[in-house]
Amino acid sequence: MTGSIEGLERFDSPGKGRGLRVTRAFKVGELLFSSPAYSYVLSVKERGCYCEGCFTRKEDLARCGKCKKAFYCNVKCQKADWAMHKLECSAMTAFGENWCPSEMSRLVARILAKKKTQKGRCPSERILLIGDMQSHVEDMDNEKREMNEADVAALHRFYSKHLELPDHKDLLTLFSQVACNGFTIEDDELSHMGTAVYPDVALINHSCVPSVIVTYKGTSAEVRAVQDMKPGDEVLISYIDLLYPTDDRNNRLRESYYFTCECQECKSRSKAPPLVSVPCLDSVAPPSELLEMCEQSLEEMGAVFADSNVYMLHMMYQAMGVCLYMEDPEGALSYGEKILKPYSKLYPPYSLNVSSMYLKLGRLYIGLGRPSAGISALKKAMAIMEVAHGKDHFYLTGLRKEVAGK
User: Fold this and answer.
1) Taking the alpha carbons of 141, 142, 143, 145 in that order, is the dihedral positive or negative?
2) Looking at per-residue confidence, does 375 or 277 come out higher?
3) CB pairs under 8 A, 24+ apart, for 384-387?
4) What secondary structure does DSSP assign to 55-111, as a single string?
5) According to the lineage, what is the superkingdom (predicted)?
6) Each residue of 188-227: b (16+ CB within 10 Å) or e?
7) Fold for domain 39-184?
């Protein structure tokens, strides 16, 4: 991979293993490289909203004539995706409501199918990197092992007709590799669209002070600089949400990626307030009940913490999401306005968390008849997104039309 991308090279990063570094200077907002997905899958919840083949969002998508569940831009997209969709098409019809593999199982099935199509060809470094990705099978706790076992069982149940499956041990390894190296594809408001594997991007190591950001254009990942970089600098992304304090961030890294970060931010512990217990919301509860739980938690934590506390912000963000789901724009706007200023201070420059909040607020303002405030918020989102996504990204094209049309 790196041999064909100008300005980048693979190297052994001290204490981290494999990594990428730049061999020339890159400016803030400059594209380091774009990577097509080795394999990807659209979330079941987004079917009918996005094309299964290219992840384009549009109305009047064409429905698969056989299963009636997959949607495409046109015949070209449908034909291009058939090698992957056929793994599920007849199974969804046969199992009906009992068809329920996890998104991880669906992605692994596509990876296995992709590998089969590559047999007999001259393998590229990108393909070899699938097997080269770290798995950490030996580090998993019992809960993760049980989840992987359930996913393996689902693979046999729903896909054995169309796939020649590896032995049990190899499947567990593959699931672990994907868990550690997979990427969540998100839209401009950070809503989950699907999951993908990018072996090239998986080479990039973590830092709580990242030098690049990963965004998505359809099913491709784009890596852009969020700091000026000089030759020899390592390419670094953040694997986790950077809002949280040092100990919490490292707990999350150890739980998901099995390492402790030793970047300058973690060494200085500049974000290290005392940890608190954040209530766990039951996602199967009715929305009104979830909102009540959020409000009760905010009231209890508010007696101890300021509104700008990261755990207060986390709960307000949950409450905002519930309000949006319940189609309560005033409630969502009230929480969003409280979140925005602390977000702007706590997150690094060009944070997608900040731009997505500006987008949400801008669209809420406009929907509530406050176009001036809405346009102002959308323009602030655009300023961040022009760096993170690139000025020619279709999200920016759409945003400019939104601003011009109001």
Assistant:
1) positive
2) 375
3) 384/350, 384/351, 384/352, 384/354, 384/355, 384/358, 385/188, 385/355, 386/29, 387/28, 387/29, 387/224, 387/226, 387/350
4) --B-SSPEEPTTTS--EESSHHHHHHHHHHHHHHHHHHHHHGGG----HHHHHHHHH
5) Eukaryota
6) bbeeebbbbbbbbbbbbbbbbebbbbbbbebbbbbbbbbb
7) Annexin V; domain 1 (1.10.220)
Helices first, then strands: H and E counts in the chain: 13, 12
Predicted confidence (pLDDT) per residue in 184-243, tens digit = 999 999 999 999 999 999 999 999 999 999 999 999 999 999 999 999 999 999 999 998
Q: pTM (2 decimals)? A: 0.90
The answer on pLDDT for 126 being more than 50 is no
- Confirm if 323 and 343 have CB atoms less than 8 A apart: no
CATH 2.40.50.100 assigned to domain 287-404? The reply is no
With CA atoms as reference, report the closest residue to 8 among 239, 183, 212: 212
